[in-house]
Write a structure and sequence with these properties.
The protein is an alpha+beta fold. It is built from four helices and eight strands. It has an eight-stranded antiparallel beta sheet with strand order 1-2-3-4-8-7-6-5.
Length: 169
């Protein structure tokens, strides 16, 4: 009988610990990777660059500096689609950095200076057309997102933006 009580007691401890770990996992902040869909339309996520490597990639591909970023991730998909997500310490810093980027783009040519904005799901989304190809970016909470759609159609790009804005809420 003592053995039976020990087994029941051990099972109760295991159940309790499982419940505690599961509850804690619900409140664990999402990593940036969780915002990248594994597939967009038929375009499969092929490569992820994160952290310092992502920041270094951004520095190499930009004219300006990358400042105040806490974290960054870049997802590369089939068809030339890429999603860049930069995390800042707070929404205010994120908004300021987005405005700085817009101001810098307006000084640059090659289509970057042509910036328009539209709302998608109550989020101000900016578009630019370097080299004739449309690109999208926006600030949401403490995240700045930049989407290079590659061969993704404009309609599918808007669907992707809508899904991303939902996941970043």
């Amino acid at each position: 009988m003592k053995e039976f009580k020990k087994v029941i007691f051990l099972l109760l401890i295991i159940i309790l610990l499982t419940a505690i770990f599961w509850t804690c996992s619900l409140f664990t902040p999402k990593g940036l990777e969780s915002f990248l869909p594994s597939k967009v339309d038929e375009l499969v996520l092929r490569r992820i660059v994160a952290g310092e490597e992502a920041v270094a990639t951004a520095v190499r591909s930009h004219q300006g500096k990358v400042k105040n970023a806490d974290n960054m991730i870049i997802g590369y998909y089939d068809g030339g689609l890429s999603i860049w997500i930069t995390e800042y310490s707070d929404s205010s810093t994120c908004g300021e950095e987005t405005i700085k980027m817009i101001d810098a783009m307006k000084k640059f040519e090659e289509g970057f200076e042509k910036i328009e904005s539209n709302k998608i799901k109550d989020v101000q989304v900016y578009t630019t057309e370097p080299g004739g190809g449309r690109q999208y970016f926006w600030a949401q909470n403490r995240f700045m997102v930049y989407v290079v759609p590659g061969e993704l159609s404009e309609g599918k790009s808007r669907e992707l933006i809508s899904e991303l804005t939902d996941s970043l809420r």
